Amino acid sequence: MAGARPTIADVAREAGVSRTTVSHALNGIGKVDPRTRERVERVAAELGYRPSLRAQRLRRGEARTIGLVSSMPFAVAGGPSRLGFFMEVAAAAAESALMHGFALVLVPPVEADPPLDSLDIDGAIVVEPDADDSATKRLRDRGLPIVALGRQPGTDLPHVDLHAAAVVRLLLEHLREQGGRRIALLVGSARRHSYVDAAHEYRRFAHEHGMPELVVLAEESGGTEAGYAACADLLDRHPGVDAVCATVDAFAVGAVRALTDRGLRVPDDVMVATRYDGLRARTCEPPLTAVDLHLGQAAEGAVSVLLAEMRRGPARGEAPEVPVPPPVLVPRASSLRR
Amino acid sequence: MAGARPTIADVAREAGVSRTTVSHALNGIGKVDPRTRERVERVAAELGYRPSLRAQRLRRGEARTIGLVSSMPFAVAGGPSRLGFFMEVAAAAAESALMHGFALVLVPPVEADPPLDSLDIDGAIVVEPDADDSATKRLRDRGLPIVALGRQPGTDLPHVDLHAAAVVRLLLEHLREQGGRRIALLVGSARRHSYVDAAHEYRRFAHEHGMPELVVLAEESGGTEAGYAACADLLDRHPGVDAVCATVDAFAVGAVRALTDRGLRVPDDVMVATRYDGLRARTCEPPLTAVDLHLGQAAEGAVSVLLAEMRRGPARGEAPEVPVPPPVLVPRASSLRR
């Protein structure tokens, strides 16, 4: 026995019962005489026996594990800018899952295709999937319950809303209040809710205020450089732009560089604002006006919704309403003229 | 069959073989006629059958999952300051584990006791465990291979070194070069390598330069407030202090506030520097001089060491040498006088 891990057979022999009785006694199943149960429990404790988690899970048909999957390209959310949106969600979701007795497996943006098919999970949260997200498709094909954090455009996947329209309106109203009259919108070219809904709300806002519609697209995978190029192109075509609302922080940082390189001052000549209030927004020079999305609460909400989906099996449509507080503006030097 | 997930029995019936033959054919075990194997594979593909990951794992005795466990109190590393050291390690470790075919389960700092015993993992990385870390103890009691990221004082647990002595020497030499002659060290009171090794190296440095030994301790769980109080106390007892080297970023931020509240200017009157170059260091006013610890590479190294430990079973002593580059100073306004 020295050093070896005690098995169910050791407990059965020591307690003078069958292995089935040990299993029933320790798992609270079947009919076991209370005195026998007590003896089995005592012997198990004395021997230091621990039932196999894996065998228990196989029997119960659950992994007690959920996945958190990024759908953003490595260039935007991986590598040197790892400490962003996804990891902020991950920290809160992992804590929330643990408190519900579930482990959280991280599937961050990776350069190669993530090995999703070999993850033993009961369900997954996908962060801001675009309309054609392949990870979401693969997980759905496995029949797993999935919740999107941020609506997936064009599908009825259960989701926790990140209020993309409200966020962009908050930014546009702030920029207008600070004197912006020709405000451009810089969004990614993927079909992601934070671009699709933002562009829709931007057009509505422009129409309401008789403002020209200046929408520029950038490739997510181009990161900061793509934001720089898109902003430079915007300035060539519309020299009168006085504010840029960029829904990706990497694009906003690129836009500030493009403006500065042309000798334009931020915010005096052109204001810049972005969506996610992370490291990039706070360490940009000047620091960027951004939005508190209450990501921690949204992540906890996504865990609750997913656990509910797992209980009732894969389903479509409206997720239970999750109370994520409305977004709050965090004004900073990049857009404060007064 | 409509909607139901096909089982191994469906494949066996359709292919006209036993379930054991299906299992052997798909898992490449036992002796199966090549034509039979081909037929089973074709039928499995047609039916969309996927073998149970959980059953496979039970058979192979592995979870294909590793844990990443924080040993820091919630007050320092959890809640509003989640995006710190631990999550930077997590992002890199998750990516590295996935590339090796393992899932990474996050066990972040949680307010309650984390349910470590119910995690189905093959091994764990514990981040900077102190000498009495209870998570490490519980995981070792389960017989799991463990690797510490940052040496665990007083044990022979395999680890990846974070060079705490070299880090503090780098900071002290910089502060001295910037004119510091009465440099204080502010460390946590736990027995963590980043305090124990730092204090040892500080004393050696003070001795070398004939500098008074000014070491103040703060409770980790007190966070920024504890740093404030410790610095205020230091200034009361040693008004001539001209630099503070704080090994916890929260303490450094508290120290800057304590100095500013007394009307002292940073860095002109008193310089401040810290260890971890995270959000706190970069967004402090003034921004804090810190150190690039190459956490990403250290985390990847910890994954490699852990996988090696898992292959050879739990062991003690020296871990394979992991090439983490030497720490690099990131000088910022909080200590730049020249």
TrEMBL record, chains A, B:
Coiled coil: none annotated. Pfam families: LacI, Peripla_BP_3. It comes from the Bacteria. InterPro entries: HTH_LacI, LacI/GalR-like_sensor, Lambda_DNA-bd_dom_sf, Peripla_BP_I. Residues 315-338 are annotated as: Disordered. Gene3D superfamilies: 3.40.50.2300, lambda repressor-like DNA-binding domains. CDD domains: HTH_LacI (cd01392). Signal peptide: none annotated. PROSITE patterns: HTH_LACI_1, HTH_LACI_2. Keywords: DNA-binding, Repressor, Transcription, Transcription regulation. Residues 6-60 form the HTH lacI-type domain. Transmembrane segments: none annotated. This is Substrate-binding domain-containing protein. It comes from Saccharopolyspora erythraea (Streptomyces erythraeus).
